[in-house]
Design goal:
single chain, about 80 residues, mainly alpha, about 50% helix
Length: about 80
């Protein structure tokens, strides 16, 4: 009788340990998900999301403006 009670105790201990590890992993995953929500950054100018077309939006973008060097032209084929 003592050996069957010992076996039940070992099995219950293993099940409790596995359940504890699963709960710890769940808490770790939830912490990671809420901590790393992520952000979405763009390099576009503010206010261009309401432009009629992509050309109109990019026409006023300050990062794409010509720096005054109009002697050099680029041609794309």
């Amino acid at each position: 009788m003592a050996s069957s009670e010992m076996d039940i105790a070992v099995i219950a201990g293993v099940i409790a340990a596995v359940a504890f590890v699963l709960v710890c992993l769940l808490l770790l995953m939830l912490h990671y998900m809420y901590r790393h929500k992520g952000t979405y950054h763009t390099n576009e100018a503010k206010g261009t999301e309401f432009a009629e077309s992509a050309d109109a939006a990019l026409q006023d973008d300050p990062s794409l403006q010509d720096n005054g060097d109009s002697s050099r032209k680029e041609y794309f084929i």
